[in-house]
UniProtKB/TrEMBL annotation:
Name of the molecule in the record: NAD(P)-binding protein
Organism superkingdom: Bacteria
Ranges for domain Amine oxidase: 104-352
Matching InterPro entries: Amino_oxidase (IPR002937), FAD/NAD-bd_sf (IPR036188), Flavin_MAO (IPR050703)
Alphabetized Pfam families for the sequence: Amino_oxidase, NAD_binding_8
Protein family according to the UniProt entry: Belongs to the flavin monoamine oxidase family.
Length: 356
């Protein structure tokens, strides 16, 4: 069986790795220069070691058996999110104040970040079977047994099966799908990509000095520009960091990126002391600027956690030759890491005709 997987995010890599292990011929085509989709990391320029997450961070193995199973399967280690000490809270009283804020039960981080999933799965697939900077512009039938995958370069690939593992709205606006019924196109366009319009900021430091002051590294703020922040040190504490979610709208961020950076530094300094305003590095990952992640529709709507996607997105198409596999399609944990793993697993198992 020859399969082309469109998109090298977590779901696509999961499906491709399972198919490879089952002996299928698999090729992944990815439009971006990077693999991983919304999973991305700040990396050490010398060692390439992942230092901090720019996309999703947490899993809940206690409540997510699918994620727990894959963590065990890939030999990935986890550790508890640091939450000892006080949070800094602003916008709820005339002046900032400190108090403990409970963490979520069962919430853990992944040693090496979620990029550990990407690295492990890509290792199973093999670099030679993953093509980057290869945008797909259309999928068409090629007789009763084959599908054509048209690339932006003008090249056409042929495969017996296809798994589409890119943000669904991106597929709707960037791929020509002449065979797709209106119900499917409407479902693709109507399914938002979780966190696609979000920006995340990471500040790296020499050491976690906020812990010395009895602070957890958490910020809860109505004022912003970070409405929420957390300690983001590595499991072995060789990397010290704070990460936060940005409250400014995509329009505000685009209009004044330098103003945003300075506002973040000012907020960190006001929350954790002057040293926090002078990080080794401040990285702002604005997913709203990536057209392979966010569409105009994503940017025009208020961000909300995805509801259960329409059933048509979990059904096979083109006589069973094509399936969709993204986190938002999953019936369990849609939009989350577990949802991506389970969606990729489901697509692969259906193609193979067995439960994996």
């Amino acid at each position: 069986m020859d399969v082309v997987v469109i998109g090298a995010g977590l779901a696509g890599l999961t499906a491709a790795a399972l198919l490879r292990q089952a002996g299928a011929s698999v090729e992944i085509v990815e439009a971006d220069r990077h693999i991983g989709g919304r999973i991305r990391a700040v990396r050490d320029p010398v060692s390439n070691r992942a230092l901090a997450d720019l996309g999703p961070t947490w899993v809940w193995p206690k409540y997510q058996p699918g994620a727990a199973r894959w963590i065990d399967r890939l030999g990935i280690a986890t550790f508890e999110q640091f939450n000892d000490g006080d949070a800094v809270i602003t916008g709820y009283r005339p002046a900032p104040f400190r108090q403990p804020v409970p963490g979520q039960d069962g919430m853990v981080r992944i040693a090496g970040g979620p990029s550990a999933f990407i690295d492990a799965l890509a290792g199973i697939v093999g670099d030679a079977r993953i093509r980057t900077s290869a945008a797909v512009t259309g999928i068409a039938e090629d007789g009763p047994d084959k599908l054509q995958i048209h690339l932006g370069s003008g090249e056409t690939l042929t495969a017996g099966k296809v798994i589409v593992s890119v943000p669904l709205r991106v597929a709707a606006v960037s791929m020509h799908l002449p065979w797709a019924p209106a119900s499917l196109l409407d479902a693709l366009s109507g399914t938002p990509t979780w966190m696609s319009s979000q920006a995340k900021a990471v500040a790296l430091y020499e050491r976690p000095f906020w812990r010395d002051a009895g602070l957890s590294g958490r910020i809860v703020s109505r004022n912003g520009p970070l409405f929420e922040a957390h300690d983001h040190c590595s499991a072995d504490n060789t990397t010290a960091a704070i990460f936060g979610f940005v409250s400014w709208s995509p329009e505000q961020r685009k209009k004044d990126p330098e103003g945003l950076r300075q506002a973040i530094l000012d907020q960190l300094s006001a929350s954790f002391g002057k040293a926090a305003g002078h990080p080794l590095e401040l990285v702002v990952q604005d997913w709203a600027t990536n057209s392979r992640i966010a569409t105009g529709m994503d940017l025009s709507e208020a961000a909300q956690h995805p509801d259960l996607a329409p059933a048509v997105l979990r059904q096979p198409h083109l006589g069973g030759r094509l399936r969709f596999a993204v986190s938002e399609v999953s019936e369990i944990s849609p939009g989350l890491i577990e949802g991506a793993l389970l969606s990729g697993e489901r697509a692969a198992s259906e193609l193979l005709g067995e439960r994996l």
